[in-house]
Write a structure and sequence with these properties.
Aspartate Aminotransferase, domain 2, 2 domains, 7-stranded mixed β-sheet, two-stranded parallel ribbon, binds pyridoxal-5'-phosphate
């Protein structure tokens, strides 16, 4: 296939984009004019407000979601000889975090309807792994495109097979599952959010870990801050003085700055509004494309999604590539989410067998993410829809 993509500068309509208001800008400027650029009062306020929104007990802001996933794994003491499973239909960070800890990563095939981890495939893989005494220590589930995984079923399996659950909710802040916000951690140990600009709300770079477990919270605090504590209760001896601190873990500098937190905190006020706008966009695509050969997300089933992505499925690889090229040529920055992680060159050393993931393979050949972001106008959607319709007819 020839690469007919145009350069980023020629993209008129990207697949995702941030919305920055005058309030967002003044929130950041206020921090610049204050005494603290980092480790001031704004990051704890951002954490408190996200925890309150999601009704979790604790929240720890990090410099990005990749760092959040890393310390989430570390806080569960994931290390060499441990096994971690995740979805292959995700950004590479969902799997890399386990490898950072020296663990073995493995993948569970996806559901052909919602593209999240398949509960049936998970059950079968767990039963097989149990017979071989190779059960995972943790499973990182990904709420793909903003639609929550079936957390209750995953939780029930965790009770039978004894694994921890991390929710990679990088796409899903503001989404709901049953009657709770994603992030309530009702059925998991921890939930991770990303605040990268293409996500639902942004702090430029930024991430967060939510949990209801105090012991995990304390570990996460240490891991975010070079393993250093000033709490005498955690020290190995009496403090030498009021200046004293101890490093009791191998941690990192994964802190979020107050500049970034100010942007995130300001954006949080718009979260529900952003999701309403995204839902309207999804409904309009659905209305305009539902009588075509294109397979669409079920907007009734996915009503509580945060609509990070709007993924359509074309009939086959050639048609998908044809539609992709036509859209790109006209400046529409559609994308493929995702290349299965096990197909990445770095992952070749682990010898994954592509035939173990038939749904993911088929999905990868036929998926396409259409533009969806709060400022996308209906006329722009019409422009995108027209190109797709013409492309399918040609
Ligand atoms: C964006 C994303 C990440 C990583 O987020 P960063 O904040 O960019 O580190 C991890 N997992 C998924 C599913 C993502 O979409």
């Amino acid at each position: 296939m020839t690469n007919k993509s145009v350069g980023a500068q020629k993209i008129k309509i990207p697949y995702g984009k941030q919305s920055i208001s005058a309030d967002d800008i003044s929130a950041v400027v206020n921090v610049l004019e204050s005494n603290f650029l980092t480790q001031g009062p704004v990051t704890p306020e951002f954490e408190d407000q996200v925890a309150k929104y999601c009704q979790s007990d604790y929240a720890i802001a990090t410099c990005n979601a990749t760092a959040a996933l890393h310390i989430a794994c570390r806080s569960l003491d994931i290390k060499e000889k441990d096994i971690v499973w995740t979805s292959p239909n995700s950004f590479v960070a969902s799997a890399n975090c386990a490898i950072y800890c020296g663990a073995t990563i493995d993948f569970v095939d996806i559901d052909p309807n919602d593209y999240n981890i398949s509960i049936r495939a998970l059950k079968n893989k767990l039963e097989f792994a149990k017979s071989r005494k190779q059960l995972p220590k943790a499973i990182i589930v990904v709420h793909f495109a903003g639609f929550s995984c079936d957390m209750e079923s995953i939780y029930q399996l965790s009770q039978i097979y004894g694994f921890h659950i991390i929710e990679d909710a990088s796409h899903a802040i503001g989404a709901e599952y049953q009657d709770s916000k994603v992030g309530s951690c009702q059925y998991s140990d921890m939930t991770i959010f990303s605040f990268h600009p293409v996500k639902i709300i942004t702090s430029a770079e930024g991430g967060m870990v939510l949990t209801n477990q105090r012991s995990l919270y304390q570990k996460l605090l240490l891991l975010r801050n070079s393993g250093i504590t000033k709490d005498p209760a955690l020290m190995t001896k009496e403090p030498d003085g009021n200046w004293y601190y101890q490093q009791i873990e191998l941690g990192y500098n994964y802190r979020l700055t107050d500049l970034h937190a100010a942007l995130g905190l300001s954006q949080l006020k718009q979260l529900d509004h952003f999701i309403d706008l995204r839902r309207n966009i999804a409904e309009y695509y659905f209305k305009k494309l539902s009588h075509t050969e294109i397979q669409l997300p079920d907007i009734k089933v996915q009503a509580k999604s945060s609509w990070h992505l709007f993924v359509i499925r074309l009939n086959n690889l050639d048609i998908r590539n044809h539609v992709y090229n036509d859209l790109q040529l006209q400046g529409v920055g559609v994308q493929v989410h995702y290349i299965p992680i096990y197909q990445q060159p770095y992952y070749q050393q682990f010898n994954f067998n592509h035939t173990d993931y038939p749904n993911c393979e088929k999905y990868y050949q036929t998926c396409l993410s259409l533009p969806i972001y709060p400022e996308l106008k209906q006329a722009q959607q019409d422009f995108v829809i027209d190109i797709i319709t013409q492309s399918l007819a040609s």
